[in-house]
Amino acid sequence: MVCEQDPLVRKIRELYEQISSLSSLKPSEDVNTLFTQLVVACIPPSLIDVTKLCKDIQDMRSKLIRLCGEAEGHLETHFSTILASHENPLCRLDIFPYYRNYLKLSQLEFDILTKHCPNTPNKVAFVGSGPLPLTSIVLASFHLKTTTFDNYDIDHMANSKAIQLVSSDPDLSQRLSFHTTDIINVTHALKEYDVIFLAALVGMDKDEKVKVIDHLAKYMNPGAILMLRSAHGARAFLYPVVDPCDIRGFEVLFEFHPTGEVINSVVIARKSPSDKHSTVQQPLGTMKLPDKFFDIEMFNPLLKHVNLMEELDIEEQLSSKSF
Q1: Of 114, 103, 171, which is closest to residue 142 (Cα–Cα)?
Q2: For residue 2, is pLDDT > 80?
Q3: b or e along 153-182 (b: 16 or more beta carbons within 10 Å of the residue's beta carbon)?
Q4: Neighbours of 54 (CB within 10 A)
Q5: Alpha-carbon span 117 to 51, nearest angstrom
Q6: Is the CATH code 3.40.50.150 the one for domain 89-319?
Q7: Where are the alpha helices (DSSP H) in 167-230?
Q8: CA 251 to CA 270: how far, in whole Å?
Q9: pLDDT tens, position by position, 182-205
């Protein structure tokens, strides 16, 4: 059992105590510095298994993940407000310092998705979209150009800010909609989606995450795709872990654990043909990522989603889209 004597755990404990003592987690020099140090500490490959942490460290980890989520929310709100002050917000997305990370994350997840879902989805849901819904915006702008996106968030203010960002774009304002509700309260509408993305911080502990996944399994159409973000090793101090055995009612198709500067793991699963939840885990499918995929040194010090890949002519894609 891993406890405080482990040097990495001791370092993370020290950072947790400093972060938890801050008067605010809104963007500032102190906040940026501490979260950067936290990410740097958690990135190197580690044999730590968070399921084997002693109770005290488990409790600390749970609190730390929630602090990370709060800081991430403040960061998105801050930049969404700045963007909304411009006449054409979507022309200025590069103001957000980690916009390029979203371009790379979306390319990565799109390529994984198309390996297992060759048909372009007609309708997608993103659960936990927040005030700066860059994943939906980037996917809709560059990858899924005919797909409609329903974005769900429990925070009305977050959705209001998100609507401000897309309202000036005649295309995206028609294809991106925003709903203020807990996804647990959405039932039969879930059958409309070909693909559902679940944000990393929807369900900040195992019980909450499993509750959401079980709900999706109950109402999603058989054959529909679920895309989840997870964490592995010491990175699990930053984000909740999605264990494939907890994805009941789905066939897990592929699980990607990066070993470099990419923080989040990616899990893709397909809703099982039967409506009954299966407790038998399906074997993981094999999938060779193209040679273009590799981890590079670019991460967000405030823990933004940072699954990364090389640029792959993204500038060319950007130049072909006029907001």
Answers
A1: 103
A2: no
A3: bbbeebbebbbbbbebbeebeebbebbeee
A4: 13
A5: 32
A6: yes
A7: 172-175, 206-219
A8: 5
A9: 999 999 999 999 999 999 999 888
Q: Which amino acid is at 113?
A: L
- Measured CA to CA, the distance from residue 71 to residue 87 in angstroms comes to 27
Q: CA 225, 226, 231: angle at the middle one, nearest 5? A: 145
pTM, whole model, 2 decimals? 0.82
Residue that has been written with the tokens 């900040």 in this structure: 204
Question: What's at 131, amino acid-wise?
Answer: P
Q: DSSP 3-state assignment of 234? A: helix
pLDDT of residue 315: 34
Residue 264 in tokens: 């989040």
Q: Is the CA virtual torsion 45, 256, 212, 275 positive or negative?
A: negative
Six token digits for residue 103 = 């371009």
Both structure tokens of 144: 């899924």
State residue 292's pLDDT score: 41
Give the integer Cα–Cα distance in Å for 95 and 237: 28
